[in-house]
Specification:
The protein has 90 residues and is α+β, with helices and mostly antiparallel strands. The chain is built from 3 helices and 5 strands. It folds into 2 domains: 40 residues; 45 residues, HU Protein, Chain A, CATH 4.10.520.10. Strands 1-2-5 form a 3-stranded antiparallel sheet. A two-stranded antiparallel sheet has the order 3-4.
Length: 90
């Protein structure tokens, strides 16, 4: 499912114009991103939890040359599925 598919689904299920459904979906994504940027967790009951993972700086290897390179520290989004979502997939 793509973002466009999600917008179409919301528009059809709620019987609202596609443009309004796209605003709603974009707003939801924007709010999740803003919370993660602030270091907050986003918990959607029954669905799952979005959080930020911190990766330390480390030394890696260039696979082509074998040369050691420094990899900078970074932050990444992480998702953990909730109980209801896990059970629905079983």
């Amino acid at each position: 499912m793509t973002k466009a598919d999600l917008v179409d689904s919301v528009a059809n299920k709620t019987e609202i114009p596609k443009e309004k459904a796209e605003e709603i979906v974009n707003s939801l994504f924007d709010d999740i991103i803003a919370a993660l940027k602030n270091g907050e967790k986003v918990n959607i009951s029954g669905f799952g939890t979005f959080s930020v993972s911190h990766r330390k700086a480390r030394t890696g290897r260039n696979p082509k040359t074998g040369e050691a390179i420094q990899i900078a520290s970074s932050r990444a989004a992480k998702f953990k599925a909730g109980k209801t979502l896990k059970e629905s997939l079983s």
